[in-house]
Amino acid sequence: MQALIFPLWLAVLLASHGRVLAPAKHRAGAPAAARHKASYPPAELYAVNLNESMRYRPFDDAGHPRKNADRELTHFLRCWHTGKQHRVDNRLGRALYQVARHFPGHRLEIFSGFRPKKYCTREHSRHLTASAIDFHVAGVKNEALIGWLRATFHPAGVGYYPNGVHVHLDLDRARDTYWIDSGDTPAPKGDVRPLSAIGDTAPDALEATSDEPVEMMEPSEPPSGDPAIPE
Question: Cα–Cα distances in Å, from 37 out to 31, 40, 89, 94?
Fold first, then answer.
């Protein structure tokens, strides 16, 4: 049987054609997105009183801190009364992202971040230093959120408002602090302490450790001016 003899030019053409048909996953220049999925997806945040949304992502795909993440969050958590900003405590940003990762698919609704002294009734409010946040996780009961926050972050300040829509979290503390502020709700039968002081780590001096409930506007268009200052 006579052996088939291919011309050299035809052998070169077939070899080149074979390389063109090689699967994309074997190519050295394949896009990074085709090789792996992002390990640090963005968290969905919504500022209720500003009617603004943000996709917060403190880390890149490799897990390294993003350079502009703190600045972006600082702007997002600005005072909705005045528009003033205060650099956000970076521990707070990391905690918010951890909350979002623990409750995937649920938007974090922010009611208050930084607030100037004029809009704080507590002398030592952590909102003054942008190290506190009042928020709610959409679709998650506040009671469940409170339990998880208290078990996860140490030391931390966690506030529960049974008659409100949000919870409070701050991380600028030397020890864990927990309080319940229910306004006019009566204390449980047989308990003579105010309900706002109940909690196994709540201190006696509530004024110096807790934060006040935040006022809230209905989600709508951002306010055009400061509603607290008469024209």
Answer: 11, 9, 29, 21
Instruction: Give the start-to-end residue ranges of the domains of the chain.
Output: 43-208
Tens of pLDDT, residues 117-162: 999 888 889 999 999 999 999 999 999 999 999 999 999 999 999 9
| AA letter at 183 | G
pLDDT tens by residue, 68-84:
999 999 999 999 999 99
- Among 136, 130, 91, residue whose Cα is nearest residue 114: 130
CA proximity to 180, closest of 151, 210, 150: 210
Helix residue ranges per DSSP H, the chain: 8-20, 32-35, 69-76, 90-102, 142-152
What is the signed CA dihedral for 145, 150, 155, 157, rounded to 10 degrees? Answer: 60
Q: pTM of the full predicted structure?
A: 0.67
How far apart are the C-alpha atoms of 142 and 157, rounded to whole Å?
A: 15
The residues pairing with 168 across neighbouring beta strands, listed in sequence order, are: 134, 159
